[in-house]
Design brief:
Strand content of chain A: 15-25%
Number of domains of chain A: 4
CATH architecture of the largest domain in chain A: 2-Layer Sandwich
Oligomer: homodimer
Largest sheet of chain A: 7 strands, antiparallel
Structural class of chain A: alpha+beta
Radius of gyration of chain A: 22 Å
CATH class of the largest domain in chain A: Alpha Beta
Number of strands of chain A: 18
Largest interface: A-B, 89 and 89 residues
């Protein structure tokens, strides 16, 4: 039946493909029974209709860079890979928007729009391999979300295929639209469980003409957070404020031989400012003052764009360094109100001690979104069990701090057992009714989000 | 039964009240059978449950400033007035957020947060009387939405009562949250048809330290729009760009004796810039250049804050002046991609001619959201009929221009017959299924949004 919809060339059932499409960046999951690579929206609609009628699980896949297993099957079925949807259809310089197919790579769009003086801010760490459709499905963030907001803020409209095979268009090219329910915003972050995104209209903004980056070293996390608080008090909103803890700095030193900070350093902040040159100069001065005011050990302004790149590469090396330890890196992107970051680090210290775990924490201090990485010996069953316990306690404590168990990565199947820590049974039941309104047969990405 | 939930004091059934709660700013609607003024969330929940069980229409009312009849009954039932929910519960200066009850007046919150150096940008024209709950329900905008976005961008979380009586909390105090479907964003703009908002957590931003306003006069709308296009090309995003057409200027002159521009003027732009003083100075200079570059007749920078206030008062006088004509003002807040504003004004000219109507247009040029006011003699049945026809053609043409029939006011019952111009039957059916997921008995604000 599928062969009447797409060429046999675009259907894969060989063991290598099934295995490859059975995992994403999480490294877990089950292989599909089939992989299909549709070439246009009509084919997507026909495939959805078929799966709906046959009650076959249908899992949409973009770049496969997600950390919670959102793009892989949990119970077989069909993986619908959007990899042939790679065109930037339009960059509209008058109306500051772009229309793209879902498998355009995030960084490719960014480069394309920056060439004409425009800017697409969302910058997930995976931007060189993540697909915009996946960014929309997960509501990707990144360091710049502090100033510019997450993917949600840039999605004006979508073309999407419902699991029942109907094609809908949500939103429009207008930057304001209050006609009916905002299905666009409902689909953003819905993790491929409500509809299949086939085209995206994105809002762009003018490219900030100037930028600068600054590294500041502190004796401990508390001092770094005090610097962030001082910035907020001065009403300064840099483009990004990244916080890196001692454990993360140590991994970079030990694994990659990069000395980001002296061994006595307890924390590092990487601050980026952008805007007009005058605005950047003024802001960077305030950042320096704030860091020095709380007793920073060292404050270094990037002398030029090359040094700025070096700072950011250092930041990006952390995940690589943590992986190079050979330990299993269980990455949680918890988020708390910014003022409660010190309490969150207190919780992390408690977990280190109580569960005898190595934990490296770093992330977006500006918006309280800290990546907490439990570093676990794969071969040590007892340590794995302790990590499981620590994970649950972390989530409970984060919710008690008025935060959320996920700021960027979503729930997928990896965090599904924990959703009840944050959401009430009534809220989960309501979300399931919304799911059923889109997907009465429950074929689209089953086993995700809900426990 | 209701008297077992709220004091008799807080139930109104006298004819004056029923009449008063039977209209909002649209000036149409049907009176309710009862008005109830609950004092807390538990009472709201009990009232909802009762109406759900008895299948009685339940209409939530805030400030009653809406233009599409969203807050008034179409078929009797209970009006639930939130007027006792007036407390600002929290202004959190560390985490830059406020927690408010839904009937806090928009401008009251703005003044309260500005006193501590913070800023709540959404600025609907009705801000001195509109309630934040209504702002959220309708996704209110205003001039500053061009730079700062609409209400949607500031809502972090909600406490809401489902029509079935359950209390849910959506979102959190964290600025990022991707746990489950974004019910917060789904409720924003849902026009009181999905749930009753009882508490709102709003994101705040630092108050811009400096601002300035500039008036520019042009021979025609085309020249004014050319100036806006030139600004966009220079990648300038002022806080607001308001466009006022000749008909609106004439009404202000004739009705209020205020000479905003010489009689030969065809259009006026009011531009506001905010940010650091250096940034504002730089931006205003670019705005002047852009206006002069397209041959503005006059460009005037407000000399001080008092003159700036005068400029904005002039802008706010327009609606008053139009109402003072004694004509019926049928206000439509259509929106097109910004670059298509000249085409929209072309459509307006055609409508003026073809349907022999007086039409005054003004609004938010920055985001393409133009308020098109059909000025109609109430006593002239033929003119009213021509206005009805023109209205439909306006909506059709706006959608053909890739725009939307409403950028700010919502659909209510006034625009419900036209929703099919913008949305497909599949999209409307999907929205109705979402509605049913929240409100199986269809008691909440019936007769709104859907035809």
């Amino acid at each position: 039946m599928l062969t009447s919809i797409v060429d046999a060339d675009h259907i894969r059932a060989d063991p290598t493909s099934l295995e490859r499409y059975g995992v994403d960046a999480l490294g877990e999951g089950r292989p599909p029974d089939l992989v299909v690579l549709p070439g246009n929206t009509q084919e997507v609609a026909a495939i959805a209709r078929l799966c709906h009628e046959q009650r076959v699980p249908l899992v949409v896949r973009g770049g496969g860079t997600g950390y919670t297993g959102g793009a892989v099957p949990t119970r077989g079925g069909v993986v619908l890979s959007m990899e042939r949807f790679t065109r930037i259809l339009e960059i509209d310089r008058t109306n500051l928007l772009a229309v793209v197919e879902p498998n355009v790579i995030t960084a490719d769009l960014q480069r394309a729009v920056e060439r004409v003086g425009l800017f697409y801010p969302p910058d997930p760490a995976s931007l060189e391999s993540s697909a915009l459709g996946g960014n929309v499905a997960e509501c990707a963030g990144g360091p710049r979300a502090f100033k510019y907001g997450t993917t949600r803020r840039y999605v004006l409209g979508l073309e999407a295929v419902l699991p029942t095979g109907e094609i809908v268009e949500t939103g429009s090219k207008a930057v304001k639209n209050v006609v009916g329910y905002d299905l666009t915003q409902l689909l953003v972050g819905s993790e491929g469980t409500l509809a299949i995104i086939t085209r995206i209209t994105l809002r762009l903004i003018p490219k900030p003409p100037a930028r600068a980056a600054l590294l500041a070293i502190f004796v401990d996390v508390q001092a770094a957070v005090d610097a962030v608080t001082a910035l907020i008090e001065r009403r300064v909103v840099p483009a990004a404020i990244e916080l890196i803890d001692a454990e993360s700095l140590r991994a970079v030193r030990d694994q990659l031989g990069e000395e980001l900070a002296p061994p006595t350093a307890g924390a590092m902040l990487l601050v980026e400012s952008d805007g007009t040159q005058a605005g950047v100069d003024e802001e960077i001065e305030l950042v320096k003052q704030a860091c020095r005011g709380v007793g920073a050990m060292r404050v270094t302004l990037a002398a030029d764009e090359a040094e700025r790149e070096r700072f950011w590469n250092a930041r990006r090396l952390i995940s690589l360094a943590l992986r190079a330890t050979g330990l299993l890196k269980i990455n949680h992107d918890v988020v708390v109100p910014r003022g409660r970051i010190p309490e969150l680090f207190g919780v992390i210290d408690e977990l280190r001690e109580q569960y005898r775990l190595k934990i490296a924490a770093f992330g977006h201090a500006g918006d309280g979104n800290i990546h907490v990485n439990l570093m676990v010996d794969r071969e040590n069953a007892d340590e794995r069990a302790r990590a499981r316990e620590a994970e649950r306690v972390l989530f409970e404590r984060v919710v008690a701090l008025e935060g959320s168990i996920s700021g960027e990565h979503g729930i997928g199947f990896a965090k599904a057992p924990y959703i009840g820590i944050e959401l009430s049974p009534q809220e989960i039941a309501l979300m399931k009714r919304v799911k059923a309104a889109f997907d009465p047969n429950g074929i689209l990405n089953p086993g995700k989000i809900f426990p």
